[in-house]
Write a structure and sequence with these properties.
The protein is an all-alpha fold. Among the domains are: 179-292, Serine Threonine Protein Phosphatase 5, Tetratricopeptide repeat (Alpha Horseshoe), CATH 1.25.40; 433-533, Alpha Horseshoe (Serine Threonine Protein Phosphatase 5, Tetratricopeptide repeat), CATH 1.25.40; 537-604, Helix Hairpins, CATH 1.10.287.110. 56% of the residues lie in helices and 0% in strands. The chain has helices at 4-7, 9-21, 62-76, 90-109, 179-191, 195-208, 213-225, 229-242, 247-259, 263-271, 279-301, 305-316, 327-340, 343-359, 364-376, 380-393, 398-422, 426-437, 444-460, 464-477, 482-494, 498-511, 518-533, 537-541, 549-563, 574-589, 591-599, 606-609, 630-636. α9 (247-259) packs parallel to α11, α12 (305-316) packs antiparallel against α13 and α21 runs antiparallel to α22. The longest helix has 25 residues, at 398-422. TPR repeats lie at residues 179-212, 364-397, 410-443. Residues 536-601 form the J domain. InterPro entries: DnaJ_domain (IPR001623), DnaJ_domain_CS (IPR018253), J_dom_sf (IPR036869), SRC_co-chaperone (IPR052758), TPR-like_helical_dom_sf (IPR011990), TPR_2 (IPR013105), TPR_rpt (IPR019734). Residues 55-68 have a biased composition (Basic and acidic residues).
Length: 687
């Protein structure tokens, strides 16, 4: 860019005159001396052709300025000053332009001289163009910067604008947001099943236009596909508020209610559509509603819990993926498991209650459900705690009050029956247990125990048929109740049916080999079975098993007179009957013989004790002989005293049962002898 002050003829002539006369009298018409669009004022002592000053230095000495001016004059003398600037070589043009720029920068950076330049305020070198700033500074407006200072690129935006209003520029205006473009992007992601990204795009569209129902409806569809049904329901409700009566939105809202397990709400929405929707659109909600109502009716009637479970399972097929079962459905499921009553079902009822309590630990219905499950499992103390906690949450909860009173009453009656049994008041215990059974007929676990207790009381009173009936009733309520089976076997045996008793006990042993004491009970029952097949001396004499010695003598005298052979010469069986009467009398009148007879020791052959291989270590492996109860064997050898080692009978096994002295037993003759010749085995028997 070429400045006019450097290339006008007038400026050249004036410069020569000033150089000749040495008078710093600048022409007022010179553009270089006027404040115009071309630049600021020049110092009067600086020649127009002086070399450019460095922008980094603020001032120079006058001597140096004169040298520079002389140097510039010598170089510029090569060219005619009257030549048009376009005729100058490129190097000269660049030099002149650089010189002018240096002078301009120097004037801006150097402080003003002590004597200011006189400026003719009335004359100008040329008329100012339209819109130009005043050249003489008459106004306070700041002059526009030189043209070369403008740039083509916009200034960078900054939060801190320029210090002066002239330099400040307003911030860039935010671009316009197109909600439809976000919606279109969301539709593309939805079609390729990228539901999370589709949700993001629909959310942007909603933020751009919050009053558009379509955007909410589309986001609800994406949320449904992402199995986020609760969030989808809220979006669909908002869309319905923004666009009431939209059939597409209402159909989607109905499907959402169905997926969340709310068929009644779904049908209410679908019925509001005008024109009415098809039966196909309503069918899922209708099916779910039918199954739920069926489950409620079954629970109200007290029908089988398995049917309630089936109805609930069918209803749950309509739930959305990942949707939790509604609380009402879970309570119905827990009620069904309680009605089923078996151990697995009661465990499921506990699980249902715990799931509800994890969501809300103060849910009174869930607390009562768990309390009822504990009560059905026989944990009455824990059940009472749960019922009381439910009443703390809701003091008016009638179901909690009912169950609490029932469990407390049942506990009181059960304890009263047990106290009567321990005191030997068996009939009173039977009456109390009978009343306890009427408190809660539906409680299988507790009632089975009460029936078993009543069976024991009946056995004590020799009411064997009633005892067997009570055991059968207890097993009907709880088939796995082993204690009731053992009581039944005992009642069968004492009623005279020891064969059935042995079979029952062996069945218990096969089902549960680890049952405590079952092996001993089987041995005792087998012994009683043998005893039942021998002559019953008590029956021969017609007396009870607890008859006294006087009763035995009296019965013997009476029968001996009647059945003596001399009194019955024509009766061939009289002698045989009289012989049995004598045997019965001899056995029962002798306390030792009677004890052996009652215990069944007389049925054991001593040879069987050592047959086929001896003891073989303790009582195990009796060599193929009869299985003998160690306690019975101990009683058998009670009359031996403290036999130590024996003089030859057995192979030296040792009994440490007490003092010496022989008894009436075949092995008692050597009692009290110090260890004989036989080898002694300490601890051969586990007594």
């Amino acid at each position: 860019m070429v400045l006019p002050s450097l290339f006008t003829k007038q400026a050249s002539k004036k410069s020569k005159k000033q150089a000749t006369d040495g008078i710093p009298s600048p022409s007022p018409s010179s553009p270089s001396l006027s404040r115009s669009n071309t630049g600021p004022l020049h110092h009067p002592h600086i020649h127009a052709d002086s070399p450019p000053s460095s922008p980094d230095k603020r001032s120079y000495s006058r001597v140096k300025d004169r040298r520079s001016s002389s140097y510039s004059s010598r170089r510029s003398s090569k060219y005619d000053r009257d030549s048009h600037p376009l005729n100058l070589p490129p190097d000269e043009l660049r030099r002149l332009s650089s010189s002018a720029m240096s002078q301009l920068n120097g004037q801006q950076n150097q402080p003003s001289q002590s004597q200011p330049m006189d400026v003719d305020r009335e004359t100008t070198s040329s008329p100012a163009p339209n819109g130009a700033q005043p050249a003489n500074g008459d106004r306070d407006d700041r002059p526009a910067p030189p043209p070369h200072r403008y740039t083509t690129s916009p200034a960078p935006q900054s939060a801190n604008y320029a210090a002066t209003p002239e330099d400040a520029s307003p911030p860039a205006q935010a671009p316009t947001i197109d909600a439809e473009s976000y919606k279109a992007a969301g539709n593309k992601f939805f079609k390729i099943k990228d539901y999370p990204q589709a949700i993001k795009e629909y959310t942007k569209a909603i933020e751009a236009d919050p009053k558009n129902a379509t955007y909410y409806s589309n986001r609800a569809a994406a949320l449904m596909s992402a199995n986020r049904f609760a969030e989808a329901l809220e979006d669909c409700k908002t869309a319905d508020q923004l666009d009431p009566g939209n059939m597409k939105i209402l159909l989607r809202l109905g499907r959402l209610y169905t997926s969340l397990g709310r068929p009644d709400d779904a049908l209410a929405v679908l019925d509001s559509i005008d024109p009415p929707c098809s039966i196909k659109d309503k069918q899922p909600a209708l099916t779910m509603q039918r199954h739920i109502r069926q489950a409620e009716e079954l629970a109200a009637r007290g029908d089988a819990g398995s049917m309630i479970i089936y109805a609930l399972n069918e209803a749950e097929k309509g739930l959305g993926s990942g949707v939790e079962r509604p609380r009402k459905w879970m309570l119905l499921r827990g009620e069904a498991h309680l009605k089923m009553g078996n151990s697995n079902a009661l465990g499921e009822a506990q699980n249902v209650a715990m799931t509800l309590l994890r969501n809300n630990s103060q849910d009174p219905e869930a607390l009562v459900l768990r309390g009822r499950a504990l009560y059905a499992q026989g944990e009455n103390d824990k059940a009472i705690q749960h019922f009381r906690q439910a009443l703390n949450c809701d003091p008016d909860f009638k179901l909690a009050v009912k169950n609490l009173r029932m469990v407390q009453k049942l506990d009181r009656m059960k304890e009263a029956g047990n106290a009567a049994f321990k005191a030997g008041r068996y009939q009173e215990a039977i009456d109390t247990y009978t009343q306890a059974l009427e408190v809660d007929p539906a409680n299988k676990n507790t009632n089975s125990k009460i029936l078993q207790n009543r069976a024991i009381c009946n056995t004590k009173l020799s009411n064997f048929s009633n005892a067997i009936a009570d055991c059968d009733a207890a097993l009907a309520l709880d088939p796995s109740y082993t204690k009731a089976r053992k009581t039944r076997a005992k009642a069968l045996g004492e009623s005279g049916n020891w064969e059935e008793a042995v079979r029952e006990l062996k069945a218990i042993h096969e089902a549960n080999p680890s049952e405590p004491g079952i092996a001993k009970e089987i041995r005792n029952a087998e012994l009683e079975l043998k005893k039942s097949k021998r002559k019953d001396y008590y029956k021969v004499l017609g007396i009870s098993k607890d008859a006294s010695e006087q009763e035995i003598k009296k019965a013997y005298r009476k029968l001996a007179i009647v059945h003596h052979p001399d009194k019955n010469p024509d009766d061939e069986d009289a002698a045989e009957r009289f012989k049995e009467i004598q045997e019965a009398h001899e056995t029962l009148i002798d306390p030792q013989k009677r004890a052996r007879y009652d215990s069944g020791e007389d049925l054991i052959d001593p040879a069987d004790m050592f047959g086929g291989g001896g003891f073989g270590g303790g009582m195990g492996g009796m060599g193929g002989g009869v299985q003998i109860d160690p306690e019975m064997l101990f009683n058998m050898f009670g009359g031996m005293g403290g036999a130590r080692g024996g003089g030859g009978g057995g192979p030296g096994f040792s009994f440490n049962a007490g003092g010496g002295g022989g008894g009436g037993h075949p092995f008692g003759g050597m009692g009290g002898m110090p260890g004989g010749r036989g080898q002694q085995f300490q601890g051969g028997f586990p007594f």
